[in-house]
Amino acid sequence: MITFHIEKPDEKLxxxxxxxxxxxxxxxxxLGRLEEIALQIGLIQQxxxxxxxxxxxxxxxxxxGIADEGVSQSPKEITHQVVYNFLNDGAGVCFLARQHxxxxxxxxxxxxxxxxxNPKLTNKKIRANGTRNFLHEAAMTTEEMELxxxxxxxxxxxxxxxxxxxxxxxxxxxxxxxxxxxxxTCLTRIPLIDCVGAxxxxxTEGIKHKYNVLKEALDNYKGDGSTSDIxxxxxxxxxxxxxxxxxxxxxxxxxxxIDGFIMTNCVLAASRLHPEVLPYCIFGHCGDETGHKRxxxxxxAKPLLDLGLRLGEGSGAVCAYPIVQSAVRxxxxxxxxxxxSITKYF
Length: 346
Ligand SMILES: Cc1cc2ncn([C@H]3O[C@H](COP(=O)(O)O)[C@@H](O)[C@H]3O)c2cc1C
Ligand SMILES: O=C(O)c1cccnc1
Hints:
CATH architecture of the largest domain: 3-Layer(aba) Sandwich
Strand order of the largest sheet: 3-2-1-4-5-6
Bound molecules: alpha-ribazole-5'-phosphate, nicotinic acid
């Protein structure tokens, strides 16, 4: 069984970091969240001069048995079709990744499609046609979940070895807002009704049907209620891989950028297993999917952007990256009061 050894960033450096930030030639606190992020990244990297290198957006993709119940506006085959669009550099997150200098890594965690070998696609299929339908049975076995955690983590280790120290996570998998709603309600105790939304575009009628299906699945659930059992019973392979990826990234002291509703529920699960993951996370945005704001609040997360995004793929994390870069520039490039002989008045 895979284990993670995550250390909370050592806080001994806080006074020195605060000193440096407060000595930059500006009214104290006037760069607001940029100051908070600079402090956070300084702590993660244990330095007064943090550096961001080789950002990567990892996209885990997989299909979901629950999609057979009509819980998504989109048919299942969209999953593999969008994976081709990632490979062709044409998907939503691709232009953002180009704009902000991210490499994209695409991982087939269990897409119901046979891809021919492609250097841009890593085959980590856990099961050929995706998860089982959690309305009737557990989505995956314990062995499959373990393997998914391991594979998800391995991908991040590879990124780290290639010099990446800032990583965002994205996903593709028709039906995965349903799986995410189940993780959310089970792990937060927020009522299911507040965790279920339109996903990729359901209307009111569709959301009602989705809720009814998920309610029945919740009523049918007879597991032990532990985090790993919830993950196994309702999860997607791509979601479990993302949990493994996040935990490994924290273990390696990388900066973790969190995307939308699905990835926020993955970090919720990850933080249940290892709460120390949270100080490594920067939350990119609060999106429009019902429940996203609530789960962010539950985690006491302060997302950077509020653009009404509801795409996934890592888009909201990559979109927020320039703000993270600005925070790092601030602490490295701004002159201090002393350097410029400006009277420090506080
Ligand atoms: C063309 C297209 C591209 C996408 N890219 C991400 N998603 C998003 O929608 C899916 C979740 O919504 P649901 O639970 O309703 O199926 C995920 O694959 C998510 O990444 C997309 C959805 C579509 C249709
Ligand atoms: O916020 C997300 O991650 C999201 C929301 C709706 C559909 N797909 C993804």
